[in-house]
Design brief:
By secondary structure, the chain is an alpha/beta fold. The chain is built from ten helices and nine strands. The strands form two sheets. Strands 3-2-1-7-8-9 form a six-stranded parallel sheet, with helices on both faces. Bound molecules: 2'-O-acetyl adenosine-5-diphosphoribose (OAD).
Length: 240
């Protein structure tokens, strides 16, 4: 039996399947990941742009980095792999999805049960008073209309806590899962990289490059997210 057939078997007998995604899920949509050769962190030091310290000490650079990512996302869209995951949710094959991605592509594709563990780049707030702000105000580098504070996207910066509701939801769903499929993440960032180990279910890892520490998975599918999901979906359709 091939690895794909094994995964399809697990999916068909699972009462609860959870998918956890990272930036590699969106590279085939034209969005760079962070740690690959063409990733953001090979060109830019995350400490200088993605921390609270960066926001406080070099706001123009912080602002430039997030504005660039927002503008890039305007030209990108979910790919077939995202739509397969949305279709699986509609058909009851997938029950929950947690993502480190801030691009909103899973929601755009139609998944409903989504935990955005690192927030969303499409909504904004004042870093000082927390009131929400408009995208246009952020892009124009305006200050908060209420307290004159600095505006920021609702993404998690390094050193910040993850949104509690999303974290608790992802954790409890993964703990109760029969199958967890992890897609397109280097598993380098804490605490999300702990989540796959929290399940007693089968653990599947779909990634372009397989990290040496990914030894605890029951099945490893080395390849691109969209291509592997298309293969699994094809087999799944034949068997349903
Ligand atoms: P990384 O850039 O660390 O890892 C992405 C992984 O996806 C790499 O292992 C790639 O080999 C793989 N990959 C790239 N393209 C792929 C494709 N088409 N199909 C399958 N795999 C592919 O991104 P994350 O693990 O998501 O957080 O990074 C986690 C967090 O670190 C991000 O959410 C972000 C970042 O700093 C914050 O900014 C707080």
């Amino acid at each position: 039996m091939s690895k794909i057939e094994t995964v399809v078997d697990w999916l068909l007998s699972s009462n609860k399947t959870v998918v956890l995604t990272g930036a590699g899920m969106s590279t085939e949509s034209g969005v760079p990941d962070f740690r690959s050769a063409s990733g953001w962190w090979t060109k830019t030091d995350p400490q200088k742009v993605a921390t609270v310290d960066a926001l406080k000490t070099d706001y123009p650079l912080f602002h430039e980095f997030y504005s660039m990512r927002i503008q890039l996302l305007e030209k990108c869209a979910p790919h077939k792999g995202h739509y397969i995951l949305a279709d699986w949710e509609k058909k009851g094959v997938l029950h929950h999805l947690a993502t480190q991605n801030v691009d909103g592509f899973h929601l755009q594709a139609g998944n409903k049960n989504v935990d955005e563990l690192h927030g969303s780049i499409y909504t904004f707030r004042c870093h000082s008073c927390g009131r929400s702000a408009a995208k246009e105000a952020f892009l124009a580098m305006e200050s908060c209309a209420y307290c004159n504070g600095r505006l920021r996207p609702n993404v998690v910066l390094f050193g910040e806590m993850l949104p509690e509701k999303a974290w608790m939801s992802a954790l409890s769903n993964i703990q109760r899962a029969d199958v967890v499929i992890v897609i397109g993440t280097s598993l380098e960032v804490y605490p999300v990289n702990q989540l796959p180990m929290m399940t007693k279910g089968k653990k599947v890892y779909i990634n372009k490059e397989i990290a040496s520490h990914a030894t605890y998975f029951d099945c490893i599918l080395e390849g691109k997210a969209k291509e592997v999901l298309l293969e699994i979906n094809e087999q799944l359709e034949k068997r349903r």
